[in-house]
Amino acid sequence: MRRADRLFQIVQILRNKRLVTAKALAERLEVSERTIYRDIQDLSLSGVPVEGEAGVGYRLLHTIDIPPIMFTSDEIEALVVGARMVKTWAGTELGYSAQSALDKITAVVPAGLRHKTEDSKLFSLRFNQRQDIDIHLDICRKAIDSKRLLQMGYCRADGEQSLRRIRPLGLYFWGNVWTLVGWCELRDDFRNFRLDRIQSIQLENGTFTDSEGQSLQDFIKRMTCM
């Protein structure tokens, strides 16, 4: 990556996050932390409003105007393939949003690269498509975003059926199956639920707040310690 491109990438990363460490920037851009320190210093000297210090992190003091982003050929194809996968696997609502985003990208990329949005030979296929899974996915996404409680009828692999009240925390895609991780009030613990085994699902009016030991971060910590 050219140095000018790296400086541009640093500004883009800082625009999108509140505080970013030099280590995180170095790993993202595949350079040394010393290089990041020099780049940050040069950005500051050139007038970019970077605030922070080594060992703590950096951020932009305020929003700055940056020229429109120019995508490379590979970046465009990555966006196209990602949009195709979302349309295939991520539910009806995100599928529409993915196509809308792709249309906007197509409208602004240079004419010489526009063919990459149509000519990619990488596809995402799904067989035995079940509309109920797409509906479950849309509902789970809404519940996670709004911290709404879920009530659902669930059938385990051994055929046992139960009614669950869940605090939905996150969704994971395993290549051909989506699972919902949540705090199950019936089991008083974290549980994973396959969306294709959900028999009924309903958003409740009640909401929840992250409690100590019951958040998605707590679930991830438990999994990484196993």
Structural notes for this entry:
The protein is of the alpha+beta class and 226 residues long. Helix content is 44%, strand content 23%. The chain starts with a helix and ends with a helix. The strands form 2 sheets. A 5-stranded antiparallel beta sheet has the order 6-5-4-3-7. The longest helix is centred in the middle third of the chain and has 18 residues, at 91-108. The protein has 3 domains: 3-60, Winged helix-like DNA-binding domain superfamily/Winged helix DNA-binding domain (Arc Repressor Mutant, subunit A, Orthogonal Bundle), CATH 1.10.10; 73-119; 131-225, Roll (SH3 type barrels), CATH 2.30.30.520. The mean pLDDT is 83. 18% of the residues are buried. Helix 2 crosses helix 3 (33-45), helix 4 (73-89) runs antiparallel to helix 5 and helix 5 crosses helix 7 (131-146). A hairpin with a 4-residue loop joins strand 4 and strand 5 (178-184).
Fraction of residues in H or I helices:
40-55%
The tally of helices reads: 8
Low-confidence stretches: none
Helix-strand pattern: HHHEEHHHHEEEEEH
- Fraction of residues in β-strands: 15-25%
Helix/sheet category: alpha+beta
- CATH class of the largest domain reads Mainly Beta
* Rg (CA only): 22 Å
Mean pLDDT, to the nearest integer, reads 83
Topology-level CATH name of the largest domain: SH3 type barrels
What does the largest sheet look like?
5 strands, antiparallel
Give the end-to-end Cα distance, rounded to a whole number of Å: 38 Å
Number of domains: 3
Shape: globular
Instruction: Identify the strand order in the major beta sheet.
Output: 6-5-4-3-7
**Multimerization status:** single chain
Instruction: Assign the CATH architecture of the largest domain.
Output: Roll
Number of DSSP E strands = 7
